[in-house]
Amino acid sequence: MTPPDDTGAGGRPARAPGARRLTGHRLFWPAAVLAALLLGNVALTHDFLAVRVQNGHLYGSLIDILQFGAPLILVSLGMTLVIATRGIDLSVGSTVAIAGALACEHIATAQDPGSPGTVTSAIAVALGVAAVIGLLNGFLVARLGVQPIVATLVLMVAGRGVAQLITDGQIISVSSSAYKMIGGGYWLTLPFAVLLAAALVAVTSLVTRRTALGMLIESVGGNPVASRLVGIRAAGLLVMVYVVSAVCAAVAGLMISSNVSSADGNNAGLWIELDAILAVVIGGTALTGGRFSLGGTVLGALIIQTLSTTIYTLGVPPETTLVFKALVVIVVCLVQSPAFRARLSRRRRPAAPDPAPAGARRQEVHP
Amino acid sequence: MSTTLSSLTGPLQRFSVRHAAHVPLMVTTALLIAMFSIGSLQYEGFFSAQVLLNVLIDNGFLLVVAIGMTFVVLTGGIDLSVGSVVALSTMLTAWLVERNGVPLALAVPLVLLVGAAGGALMGWVIHTFEIQPFIVTLAGMFLARGLCYMISTESISLTDPTTARIAQTRVLLPGGLFVSPAVVIALVVLALAFVVLHHTRFGRTVYALGGNESSARLMGLPVGRTKIAVYAVSGLCSALGGLLLTFYMLSGYALHAVGMELDAIAAAVIGGTLLTGGSGFVLGTALGVTVLGLIQTVISFQGTLSSWWTRIVIGGLLFVFILLQRLFGGARTAE
Amino acid sequence: TEPATTGTTGKGSSDGKLVLGFAQVGAESGWRTANTKSIREAAEKAGITLKFSDAQQKQENQIKAIRTFIQQKVDVIAFSPVVESGWDTVLKEAKNAGIPVILTDRAVDSQDTSLYRTFLGSDFVKEGQEAGKWLVKEYEGSSAPVNLVELQGTTGSAPANDRKAGFADAIKGDPKFKVVASQTGDFTRAKGKEVMQAFLKSHKDIDVLYAHNDDMALGAIQAIEEAGKKPGVDIKVISVDGIKDAFVAMQEKKINVVVECNPLLGDQLMDLAKKVAAGESVPRRVEVKEGVFTQDQAAAALPGRQY
Amino acid sequence: MTAPPTPRTPPRTDRPVLEAHGIRKAFPGVVALDGVDLRLFPGEVHALMGENGAGKSTLIKVLTGVHPPDAGTVSVDGSPQRFTEPLEAQHAGISTVYQEVNLCPNLSVAENILIGREPRRLGLVHWSALHRRAAQLITELELDLDVRLPLSAHSLAVQQLVAIVRAVDIKAKVLVLDEPTSSLDRDEVAQLFALVRRLRDRGAAILFVTHFLDQVFDLCDRVTVLRNGRLEGEYRIDELTPVTLVHRMVGSELRTLDDLAETSHTGTTAASESADAPFLSARGLARTGSIQPYDLDIHRGEVIGLAGLLGSGRTEAARLLFGADHADGGELRIDGERAVLRSPRAAIAHKIAFCSENRKAEGLIGELTVRENIVLALQAARGWTRPLSRTRQDEIAARWTEVLDIRPADPEAQVRNLSGGNQQKVLLARWLLTDPELLILDEPTRGIDIGAKTEIQRLVTRLAAEGTAVLFISAELEEVLRLSHRVGVLRDHRLVATLPNDPTLTPDRILGTIATGATS
Ligand SMILES: Nc1ncnc2c1ncn2[C@@H]1O[C@H](COP(=O)(O)OP(=O)(O)OP(=O)(O)O)[C@@H](O)[C@H]1O
Ligand SMILES: Nc1ncnc2c1ncn2[C@@H]1O[C@H](COP(=O)(O)OP(=O)(O)OP(=O)(O)O)[C@@H](O)[C@H]1O
Ligand SMILES: [Mg+2]
Ligand SMILES: [Mg+2]
Description:
heterotetramer; A: 367 residues; 16 helices; disordered N terminus; disordered C terminus; C: 307 residues; alpha/beta; six-stranded parallel beta sheet; six-stranded mixed beta sheet; 10 helices; 40% helix; binds magnesium ion
């Protein structure tokens, strides 16, 4: 997974004029892909982009994409930071399930399920437990030096069991309008989940980019040895990103369970870690750590959610869904690959005068 | 001028430097033995060689798949497609043999070819377009599973009596013990992989690639070829694992081996292979597979756990295992 | 065929109790959990030692579990196959070890019928057919086209395949029924809601929803309500399983009909296990009691629902 | 660009073994090479000279297939070639040591030397033959290493030698060496030169990049000079003097070579300072397996040089003072207080800075920008909650880019795209910025051109004059002598002597001390 660091391919154009600067922007290609997907939908379903007001809130496919995409955005958000440190967090799916289960269990057994107090304490419990999960992951990775993938695998496996233990293997339904607000409610005509996700993204980017946190994380991910010698407290940072990741996943878990007013220990957040990692990678953050892009991650998550919605709207039969998804993923990553684009443009443009006659090349090579 | 470090690095130290990488292996083995002993004390019928052999019988296909994964992980890559390729191989075999009457002797090489070619294709894309292996193999994972569904959403049984006979053949060992032919195949693959990784130029290039890819390129090693080959090996191993699974289950099914990629990665990593590449042993992977299998066996023997406690205990045992592994073999802490 | 019933009681346990090894599919749904619970409670009541193993929805894990049961020399093995095929090898090992096998919940397609003693369970195809039959009856007499959407279970899983096939079979005679969209909802509420929401955007005139299980139906109902329509009236809802929440929804007139798939087969299983272990002959196939519930029956049935 | 006044070398009778013509290579934002020609004849040692960032390494990478050129031709033995992989260049008989050590740290020394052409038997690697062969090659350079140890167990200088051994082994027509001597001692350099001469006499062509003028005059026959990515000219070495050569490289009246003399000083100030309590004092500080117990006092305003042979333990002694490795014996006092340095962070809190010799692995964060790399240590010390404002960062980056003449002067360039020498400057800037009380410089002038070297030496002198304590490690004894007040001499991982730098202290005396291991 080591990117070749001695070739110029990875370099960002420093000063490219006009269109070059635009296409050179790291968010350009993910954004282009998202736009293309949306336009493709419009071509097939004409009112795909139409948004109207219904029951006092906005209604339409775009709103659905945002609303269902919100949990994925959150999980990917935390995942981005973890990946930036060269880590990976497989336990987010389980954390999603645990958070939903804890909150719903708390509300379902409370005297007054609808009261804001109950909901607040439910949220507090869920986030608190998530923080503990994050601490445990962080401890294993930062203090014991366990490889992140195994460290978080432990909680990925056990966590889902814990979620089921909390729900006793059942699906816990709750009826609490206050709780419903988190994932299914509307505020200022917009889904509350979307606003919440947007707020968390904004806070995270502010905290990482306005403080030195982002740079230090990138440094630890980019070169751990050098970071230690520069005096960065890597252990603290690592623990922090795993906690952030778990808490983000927990908020996502609250959203998901709130949206359907029930907690499903077994299925909530199943495989969301893969989608989240995919979103991060599509967004331009490398799994090898270092530079990360929160904006890219949000775009990546939206691409994935749009793709799902597209599949439902197009009526792609379930048997072919995966093939379709595979093709889109391939196209997305090819489009994003500078090497691919370079090849394409080389082919399209008349080849630069090649001083070496093609045939002469091999002959001369000495054994 | 003659450098002087030899005066300092005494034989003992040299030994420890040279064999530092083996320590985790030994620790893992010791922990495995401990786990087996505890199981034997705890459960009736556990202390028997057949229990261990059953771990192999039930995980032979996983071992083969994990070996392929080890190649990829050693170069610093990852292959998420293995589980789906396993499923595709079972499906393809069953479909060819059952629905199309292709003789088994033809179907088997065909399936192996499909697996290897698929892997090579992914490797080619990864190398040529410099795309992260994670996405490319994830796409491969979707594609292979999707192809399974396109063949059929139902499971296809292999009803051919020869196939059944092969599947039910038991290789008898002294002492009334037995293993399946799949175990023999898996062990042969293991031995082959060991030789390839440690005693061929290709294998050493795999390690070099994992050590530092750009250096490997500057050293004039065939980076592209090796990368493609590694994914081809992984694809081939997955296809072979799929064939073993086909015989194990006597059926092809699109939902076989869901999540096996994680098991394979976990086995390799528990066995001491670094996910960042360049360090690890294929024998460690075999130990890793055994660890995972033994944990499952212990839980089956326990037999009173509810579904959720099953998961919690699997996670807990894994946790204890890696914790002990770190404590006793923690020479290579990532600082 | 007379299987080798050398199974003498008490091999696997020291206190002379009958030992039953049960390999469960997993705990993927409330239905499954109720199934497990029923079996556990029944075993306790019947004085049978239960060795329970959870396969987390994977066939290979179930096979492994059966193998450890053989290793532990249990008296009877029972399991709910994840899929129909692929059991011959391990069942043969059980047979060679002289351990009788009972299938629950779903059959296997083995040619060699001596590999298991009896089958206790439901018929998913029949459930789909029941759902279809209700629909055909509901629209009897009208000739206006009926637009259906279908929420399928996990792609490739047996209940999804069978319930789809049974339903399609029941409605195929009448061209007015048209399935306008069919997509998997993975048997979960969240997915059910998400997919239904997309259906509602892309198809303006949906008349009927057929969901392969209650959870997806319950999720879809929320989507229908959020789209400003009335589930059960504007869009008729047909569902399978019969969990308590579905009965509640039925009572609120949001679901029109639920085809029951009964998970509570513990007692019947224990009976069979005892008989099989004792070498008594048992019927090859035992059906569990299941019904079709409509809205007017919901209120009456609700208090009796255990899961 | 004006044509060089000096006439070109008279054309030889034999044709060049390697010829490049009109090479152009642009990276996004930078034109690294523009119309560069190069000719290499069999049996010559050809120097490639230029300032940091002039394009030397890029030219080498173009010649050997690492980078495809944007324009121009490369021909070998008169026939045009288009290498797309270093492998192809190797097959064509071009063997290269690139500037940074490019080997695999996880493999053994022997494998690093021979991988790709290891001896085989029945298709399998013949391990014992491999080890034997590697050991033999190592001894040819008069090195003594356990070739079975992983490369990462060896110091950077050893790794560099291993890279050379690897390249030399190939029966190469052309050997390209990009700054192979930058962290080597005299002796290794002498060994290397002997080897290079042997190869030359065998008819190989050697392309040699270095910033050491004396080495060029010592070894080379001809020289090609690059300036700002353009060809300045090709000269016979006997046509040039050091001053004219520098003039060609720099292009203008240089900040003269003679400046160097001015910066040198003898231990006059040291005597007065040493009366004070030392800033740092180590007593019996040791680490098993890496350095024997040693005593060392460093006063404010004092420059202490460390001298020793390759692998004598200079780096390892210094790492203990920075907490980079954990000392397992002895004690350390800082300003009279006992201090236990558990991590570099603790040392930094005591205002100690350590500039590592291994900039690629231990220094820079390749992906980050020049600006970020420069402010990193300062920022880490402040903690993430107290960020340096962007304006502050920009100011800092601009200032240090100018002071150290980092090129390109673009603080937003990714540091991994900088030339080796410029990377080194970034690393220096990072630590100078933290305003340390004790500055540990491990080979700070590695790969730095003469102009910048003078600048850095001047900086060190100035810092010391302002009261900073400096520990200066360099493979170049002259440099150590020029700057230090006292010189610590290491041998076999033991500090054998600390010599005051009075006029009697000469490189030869230090070498004598190293040889005998006794204070003289
Ligand atoms: N991959 C790259 N991407 C962008 N710019 C690059 C890249 N490689 C080199 N450069 C730029 O090309 C120019 C020439 O660099 P090069 O490494 O060839 O210099 P050099 O002469 O070897 O210097 P030094 O003496 O410091 O090693 C520099 O300005 C450098 O920043
Ligand atoms: N873990 C280790 N095992 C064996 N030898 C080691 C180990 N670590 C370091 N060494 C050896 O100890 C020697 C001391 O290294 P150090 O870097 O301190 O030397 P130095 O004096 O700075 O010389 P230079 O940097 O020029 O090689 C190195 O040559 C290295 O080979
Ligand atoms: Mg250079
Ligand atoms: Mg050193």
